[in-house]
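Think of the structure tokens as a kind of shorthand, similar to the way a musician reads notation: each symbol stands for something richer, in this case the local conformation of the backbone. In the example below we present two proteins back to back. Begin with the first one, reading the sequence and then the tokens, and try to describe in your own words what changes along the chain.
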Amino acid sequence: MYGAGDVRVENRPDPKIVHPADAVVRTVAACVCGSDLWPYGAMPATDTGRPMGHEFLGVVEETGADVTGLKAGDLVVAPFTYSDNTCDYCAKGLHISCRNGGRYGFDGVDGGQGDAVRVPHCDGTLVKLPVAADSELVPSLLVLSDVMTTGHHGAVTAGVGHGDTVLVVGDGAVGLCAVIAAKRLGAERILLAGRHAPRTDLGRDFGATDVVAERGDEGIAHIRDLTGGVDKVIEAVGTRQALDTALGAVLDGGTISRLGVPQYEQGPIGPAEFMRNVTLTGGASPARAYIEQLLPDVLDGSITPGRVFDRTFALDQTPDAYRSMADRQVLKALITP
């Protein structure tokens, strides 16, 4: 990505082992994330460009001398950040804060939207998959890299449990996966705030019991009419309006988990919120902590989060994938090298 709206497909040097804990992974499937659309809409122009993509699944081609848990030919899924899985943060399930971790596309590390990726700390990062590269489960396994584990993070941090009523704000891929996660954890009633019928219809398939299409005060009033207010909210957009909806719908003493990367610097944290004892939680998902928890349910078909992919693009069509998602013609674009 060279700037807002400027995504290019380029020939780049093949990834090589740099550190003994590295692996080179040949990409089988990748995708465009909703968070990629924020720089797509606002990134300042640059002469050098930034390798893009942080969600990918592929086959190990080569490993460094210190790698013990993986070998060439293994099919693996990569969480959206890399981590050593041994530091104090990783030990408590906060891999997103790994002391030796980082992000794809930065600091000389490849982006996931390409033919191959050098993965640092591959023993700690990559999760081996017990299926073939041509398995029909590949789309659902791929979303474990980010959106499904992120939706799950929202449900876990919101404290969703059996019998709960939950509001999910946002009908993007993360919001829809949050619906799956809430249902999986036992929520009895799940309200999905969204206004794009194909997406909210999919949300109903995933377990949403009610859809609220209105926005702003009208949407809050509708949620309150339906429920009297909710104890658990998963905010999966990242705009100030989405946060305001969450705050307007949640009951005093309730919990709001924020999953959408905030596109605001200031929010309501004054006396009114203080007096309501509302808990704000969530944040960037430690995806590596959740993949092995969710993997069995994908393998046995209990959950099918790969249904969020509604169009497939070849790698050389990636700029079209960005445009289609930005124009809301596509929910989530699958990329196949």
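Once you have a description of the first chain, move to the second and do the same.
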Amino acid sequence: MIPVNDDAVRGVPLSLEVAGLAYAYPDGHQALFGVDLRVPRGERVALLGPNGAGKTTLVLHLNGILTAGAGSVTVAGVPVRKGRLAEIRRRVGIVFQDPDDQLFMPTVREDVAFGPAAAGVRGAELAARVEGALERVGMAAYADRPPHHLSFGQRRRVAVATVLAMDPEILVLDEPSSNLDPASRRELADILRSLDVTVLMVTHDLLYALELCPRAVVLSDGVIVADGPTGELLADEALMAAHRLELPFGLDPRALGRAAGTRTAP
């Protein structure tokens, strides 16, 4: 097990603090066992782990979809609890794996405007939010297009824009590279690197995690078993084998260890 490095968060404002989070579903299945996680503002962190590890359960606690577990979740100093959920859901934006789960309006512009408008943003401020979000994902030229006329990669970028328009503290991405062709993967990676928000990326795509996230957290059987530099974790063959994480066939983990020494956060 690679221990959490507390030095990474000392003196830096926290976007996310999870303390002692435990949760059991109504059928009795215990999904989380005392999870502790701190993410400094502006950091990009990959959340890794096998299927059934508890990753989705953890993410659903971040914006209050699940709130019944023991422990606490705090976003930018605001506790996630009843009475604060509207504020929390403005601060935590989740981009789902399938963009069609988020895009339902007649045009791209209307989809991106939907969230801020529902939160009471109007007029010039709303227009600026929409324009700015679309510019950040390179989709401003498509504002008046129907979302279903776009490619899958373009729809995913619009889905990111719908969240950015809410001016979130944390951007949570669920398998962002899935079903993307190589060019779309690169375009999305460039966008994510350019954003000035905290990013938590849930993914099985270990190379994408290495490319985008200087830090990774491994969740397995409801507990965090490793937290550290992504390249170092992926190069740890014993850790990877113990928690059913596999690099692409033929990739030498020692090469990742060497690369880890040259990768730094932007």
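Compare your description with these statements about the second chain. The beta strands are 14-24, 30-40, 44-48, 70-75, 78-79, 92-95, 170-174, 198-202, 215-220, 223-229.
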